[in-house]
Design brief:
Layout lengths: L1 E3 L2 H13 L4 E6 L5 H13 L2 E6 L9 H6 L4 H10 L4 E3 L3 H4 L18 H4 L3 H16 L3 E5 L3 H13 L5 E5 L19 H6 L2 H11 L7 H13 L4 E9 L15 E9 L6 E9 L2
Parallel strand pairs: 1-4, 2-3, 2-5, 3-4, 5-6
Antiparallel strand pairs: 7-8, 8-9
Helix pairs in contact: 7-8, 10-11
The structure holds pantoate (PAF).
The site of pantoate has 10 residues, from strand 2 and helix 7.
């Protein structure tokens, strides 16, 4: 695996792949890799001739400096995992490579970025689309793979890719879970043992909602069941629960007649060390 620490190195690797007429797949990451990322790499391997991964903790998608500073950084373990998984090249850029001094260009999905998680974390999705657009231009992939766990992020990236005519196929990969149901996330490493034991409540709450989601049931009742399940876990503080139409992301209301997406987030722990976890599911009645 070639380790590219600057853009010319990555471009040279990309040029070699293209010269051999190979299809290039991209897996953008912020490092602190786990089995969820490896599922993205496996899917990218199966769907392309060459795989480029990126490791870049993108400052523009973090609202609070403390969240950015606390983000886990495990570069040598990440490189070993990517190499073992058969990645061909990894780009590990400096922030100034991605955001050249004096840069002033942003990319934003104006509606989708401001709603739901975007309303709670202003600027977050603008940071994601800005960096992903730049990574697409740098890595020029034919296709890119993202986790379905970040449900709204995936929708935002699909919209941006379509709107800006990037010739990149976007693929979502199902959430990978620990045996107790907790969705794998780099943030899980920051949980105390007690909060780690409590965190599977997110999946239990989604399962409880899904269990009553028969055709015609009131969506408000599904929401209530999810809220009550989270409330029964004293270590979890519900932050957001959104039940949406998966196409428009507008709130789903009334009786259940169409597929719905459920986005759930909760905080564990206190103060600066509190960890925000998210989970999601889609239900087709
Ligand atoms: O999902 C992530 O890890 C990040 O949001 C992404 C897509 C790599 C952009 O920084």
């Amino acid at each position: 695996m070639q380790i590219c620490r600057d853009l010319p190195d990555l471009r040279a690797a990309h040029a070699r792949f293209r010269a051999a007429d190979e299809r290039v797949g991209l897996v953008p990451t912020m490092g602190a890799l786990h089995e969820g990322h490896m599922a993205l790499v496996r899917a990218a391997r199966a769907g392309s001739d060459r795989v480029i991964a990126t490791i870049f903790v993108n400052p523009s998608q973090f609202g609070e400096a403390s969240d950015l500073a606390a983000y886990p950084r495990t570069e040598s373990a990440d490189i070993a995992m990517l190499e073992a998984a058969g990645v061909d090249a990894v780009l590990i850029p400096d922030a100034s490579d991605i955001y050249p001094p004096g840069d002033e260009t942003i990319v934003e999905t104006t509606r989708l970025a401001g709603m739901l998680h975007g309303a709670v974390r202003p600027g977050h999705f603008r940071g994601v689309t800005t960096v992903v657009a730049r990574l697409f231009n740098i890595c020029q992939p034919d296709a890119a793979w993202f986790g379905e766990k970040d449900y709204q992020q995936l929708a935002v990236i699909r919209r941006m890719t379509r709107d800006l005519h990037f010739p990149v196929a976007i693929h979502g990969v199902p959430t990978v879970r620990a045996p107790d149901g907790l969705a794998l996330s780099s943030r899980n490493a920051r949980l105390t043992p007690e909060d780690r034991a409590a965190a599977p409540v997110l999946k239990r709450a989604l399962d409880a909602g899904a269990a009553i989601a028969l055709p015609g049931v009131a969506i408000a009742d599904i929401a209530q069941t999810i809220r009550e399940t989270v409330a029964a876990e004293p270590r979890a503080r519900l932050e957001g629960l959104d039940i949406v139409n998966p196409g428009s992301f507008l709130p789903a209301t009334g009786p259940l007649t169409q597929p719905i997406g459920i986005m759930l987030s909760a905080r564990f722990g206190q103060g600066d060390s509190a960890v925000l976890l998210i989970d999601q599911t889609e239900i087709t009645p």
